[in-house]
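Backbones bend. We report:
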Amino acid sequence: MRPHAVPLFLALALPSAAGAVPLRVEVEGPRVTLGDLLPRAAPGALAADLGPAPAPGASRLIPREALLAVFVHEHLPAPRALPEAVRVVRRMRALTPDAVERLVREAAGATALPRGALLAGVRAPRLQVPSGWTSVALEVPRLPRRAGPLRMNATLRFLRAGESLAAAAVPLELVLPPEAATPTLARNAPVTLVLRAGLVEVSTAAWAGADADLGDTLPVVLRPSGRVLPARLVSPDRAEALEGP
């Protein structure tokens, strides 16, 4: 159970605030706290968790009785005037195409694009995203092993303290360099295989059983036995076994 959380059975057992005119409150972040709704409440109750924030475009109705249950649970006096109900919505932020393109380029510059790709263009849409994000990350799907121009969709993810608040597809125009047509490790090329058993690490000579790029799983053939083990390529000439010797 989260710290200061109101027991779910208590909130569900309370009558609804049907017919009441709810107070509308906008919140940021993935969770709703009592402090979001009643910022002048007793300090000991402000961190009480009232559950997840609604999805963008949706809302949650929290009745007066559920608010009162927080103070009962925390053994604190409730304010004299509590709203009959609170309708919670996510605070949204509008982003122009120029702003989206700027965020995409900053994220692409912070993390190198796969296969040495160059960002040639961004067909940025206009977005409405939840407010409160502090950073963005660009997720690019696996790129084909070829050179030349490429159009594809990447995912622009909006983060707060490492937690994703929203994600949007953004069309990109990339240019893949000639070396993108060549695998990082070619089939039958020599590779050092690292095997781990507890705290013991052993390196042995092997060769690649298939073409692979960094992060790929590939079959690796041990020398001289010819035994095949699955491994993950962690550098151009080094792979880590996914199972023991």
User: Anything to note?
Assistant: The longest helix spans residues 97-110. The helical segments are 8-13, 34-37, 64-74, 97-110. The chain has three domains: 8-90, 94-181, 190-241. The two ends are 42 Å apart (CA to CA).
